[in-house]
Amino acid sequence: MKTVIFGEKNSDTIILLHGGGLSWWGYREAAQILSKQYRVVLPILDGHAGSDRDFSSIEDTATEVITYIDENFGGSVKLLGGLSLGGQVALEMLAQHGDICENAVIESALVIPSKMTAALLPSSLKMSYGLIQKEWFARKQFAALKIKDELFEDYFRDTKEITLENMTAFLTANQQYELKSSVKDTSARVYVFAGGKEMKSVKRSAEMINKAVKGSSIEVLDGMYHGEFSMRYAERYADKIIDICGGK
After folding, report:
1. Nearest to 107 by CA among 22, 172, 6
2. Averaged pLDDT of the chain
3. Residues 78 and 245 sit within 8 Å (Cβ to Cβ)
4. What would the pLDDT profile of 26-73 be if each residue is shown by its tens digit?
């Protein structure tokens, strides 16, 4: 597993898992802030530009990150966070290994499977995949993400490197993921976030996660779209993590 690390000399470790079709750079600004107090590890998820493996499943990706934590950080980290697909991987990690972290921040993770969307994705992606190489099309897609303009070059460069097979695999998995019942047994303090302007299914998913994990908290962020919390409001996101971890 490839990673980008900020604040390597710090002892307490935070791992943040990016969304589907994005990469570590989505957390760059937040990681720079957090690195003053913590070691911040940003894995590149399987199937994405710069990764060393094709995407197979959310479950396999979760196991891979767990193994990384076991081998490098003694089996547990201070905080595990994830956005969208990364949030699903984080939830799966909590289900597989309940004490993998002290705290978990789950942002905009879908846990209500959509069989229809999953079934239509392969054909629709096959038809539109060639357009990904076009800057005008990439700019339209990027605009829909509602994130900072300065991230476009990173987005365009990396999106062009994702194969059709990998893109189909992780986007389909994103639509098919269902919350495992074992997540209720996690010892982590779980904090669930969703944007007030997100799809209803994402906000309902946040409620389901909050209900499934005893003692968890939920916050719907007024006026925010998908992924804006961590990528557009990085300082606010980092401050929240520092507060959760008990930092200064």
Report:
1. 22
2. 95
3. yes
4. 999 999 999 999 999 999 999 999 999 999 999 999 999 999 999 999
Residue corresponding to tokens 């900020």: 6
Question: Of 123, 26, 122, 36, nearest to 81 (Cα)?
Answer: 26
- Which of these, 19, 3, 15, lies nearest to 170 by C-alpha position? 19
The answer to whether 162 touches 66, Cβ cutoff 8 Å, is no
HSE value, Cβ hemisphere, 13 Å, CA-based, for 99:
2
What are the E-state strand segments in the chain? Answer: 3-6, 13-17, 39-43, 77-83, 101-107, 189-195, 217-221
Contacts of 47 (CB under 8 A, 6+ apart): 53, 54, 55, 162, 163, 166, 167, 169, 170
**In this structure, is the dihedral angle defined by the CA atoms of residues 41, 45, 51 and 52, taken in order, positive or negative?**
positive
At 3, list the tokens.
């990673």
Q: Are strands 3-6 and 13-17 parallel, antiparallel or unpaired?
A: unpaired
Regarding pTM above 0.90, the answer is yes
Residue 102: in which H helix or E strand, if any? Answer: strand 101-107
**Planar angle of CA 239, 234, 208, nearest 5 degrees:** 80
Max CA pair span of the chain? 50
Alpha-carbon distance 224 to 234, whole Å?
A: 13
